[in-house]
Structures are given as C-alpha cells and as structure tokens.
Design a protein that fits this description.
Low-confidence stretches: none
Helix content: over 70%
Radius of gyration: 13 Å
Distance between the termini: 30 Å
Number of helices: 6
Largest sheet: none
Oligomer: single chain
Structural class: mainly alpha
Strand content: under 5%
C-alpha cells in the first residue's frame, strides 16, 4: 500500500476501476511483459500522477500484471522518494 504520508504529501487521489480503464488499455497494449511495465516506471519516475494511475491499474488487474506485488512495491518506493524530495524542498 502507498503510505498515508506519501498520499498526503503528493495529494494522491484514489482512482476507480472505471476511471483507470483507458490507462489499463494503454498498459495492456503497449507493454507485453512485467519487465516492460517496470521499464515504464523508470520513464515516469518523477511523474507521480502517472505512477499513481499505474499503481491503481496494477492493483485492479493484479492477477494479470502483478500477482507477486513486485511492480506495485517498486511504484510505492518511487512515490515515497518523490514525497521525501518534496518535503525536503519545503523545509527552510
């Protein structure tokens, strides 16, 4: 799960299965393996909104994309890192 502090710092919103459908279609057609999805995480490593969307797609379709929770864990760490950077930039 994404940490509460990370959610609050980045103002992440939950995304419904219906709202994540278009992104699901994109992931399903553009990435042919979990490794390809993991590579996309590195492309979007600073785009916390896209990472949040991908996390929800993986959550809703875990049996298809992420049965072992590996990809979601990678995204959670990336989001935590982004949140930490934002908090450190706000400190005087």
């Amino acid at each position: 799960m994404i940490k509460r502090d990370t959610v609050a710092t980045l103002s992440l919103k939950p995304i419904t299965r219906k709202d994540s459908y278009d992104f699901y279609v994109k992931v399903n057609t553009e990435f042919d393996s979990p490794d390809a999805i993991e590579e996309s995480i590195s492309w979007w490593q600073e785009d916390y909104k896209k990472l949040n969307s991908l996390w929800w797609v993986l959550n809703y379709h875990s049996e298809e994309f992420d049965p072992e929770r590996h990809l979601r864990a990678v995204i959670e760490r990336k989001l935590d890192d982004i949140a930490e950077k934002q908090k450190s930039n706000m400190e005087p």
